Design the sequence.
């Protein structure tokens, strides 16, 4: 009974804390400690960062040379199976393969599942076909259309203006897809920001609601950061005129 009360009390405390403050653990994509590049990486980019990708580049490429491009097929879920079969088939003629195959076998299940988990959502095009003889209309997905040759010729006619895309399976999607900062002139800055050695971003969605009580300290910090070689930018959805007025009113050199 006591344990039950403790459990309920703990749950109530967590609910209260989350409501009044913030969650004890920040699961958001922009949480402290999260790697922005990793959070924004596509399925293909994430797969290229996996231990399997490193293994192929470091251990397999020197063995396979130009015979089979395992690195080029990283995103293919059957690639790791083909890789193991290749090593097994060539093990007897190349003793150097034995420890490489042992390492692959040791990590096979984990690496295989990781590649599957990073597959992107799958979509297909849906075509509308009309039978010119009977007037019948029907929808078929692109896979079916390509397999059934009878649908690609008379009396069926493809209604191109009615084609649409449909997602048929879920998959990995980047946690961050809305980070696209631009200069006041409209120049894209995402790649530059992500590739700076050190960069500070001061975010304020609306400068009209910006608390300026500590603007002097912010200006001082920005100046010191820039003097030390770091970049310091302001990020806001406010208009260009608002940005100029903000800089004038608070005598700040912040670049937005």
Sequence:
């Amino acid at each position: 009974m006591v344990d039950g009360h403790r459990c309920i009390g703990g749950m109530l405390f967590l609910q209260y804390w989350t409501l009044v403050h913030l969650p004890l653990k920040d699961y958001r994509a922009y949480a402290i400690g999260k790697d922005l590049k990793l959070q924004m990486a596509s399925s293909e980019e994430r797969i290229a960062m996996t231990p399997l990708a490193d293994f192929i580049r470091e251990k397999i490429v020197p063995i396979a040379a130009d015979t089979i491009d395992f690195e080029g097929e990283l995103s293919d879920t059957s690639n790791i199976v083909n890789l193991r079969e290749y090593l097994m088939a060539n093990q007897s003629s190349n003793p150097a393969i034995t420890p490489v195959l042992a390492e692959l076998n040791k990590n096979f299940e984990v690496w295989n599942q990781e590649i599957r988990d990073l597959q992107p959502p799958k979509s297909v095009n849906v075509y509308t076909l009309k039978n010119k003889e009977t007037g019948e209309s029907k929808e078929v997905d692109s896979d079916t259309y390509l397999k059934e040759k009878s649908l690609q010729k008379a009396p069926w006619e493809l209604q191109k203006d009615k084609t649409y895309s449909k997602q048929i399976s879920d998959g990995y999607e980047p946690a961050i897809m809305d980070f696209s900062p631009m200069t006041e002139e409209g120049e894209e800055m995402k790649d530059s920001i992500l590739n700076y050695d050190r960069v500070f971003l001061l975010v304020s969605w609306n400068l009209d609601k910006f608390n300026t009580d500590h603007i002097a300290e912010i200006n001082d910090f920005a100046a010191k950061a820039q003097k030390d070689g770091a970049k310091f930018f302001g990020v806001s959805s406010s208009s260009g005129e608002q940005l100029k007025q903000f800089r004038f009113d608070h005598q700040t050199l912040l670049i937005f």
Q: What stands out?
A: The chain has four domains: 1-32, 40-117, 122-169, 190-250. The radius of gyration is 28 Å. The mean pLDDT is 85. The first strand starts at residue 122 and ends at 131.
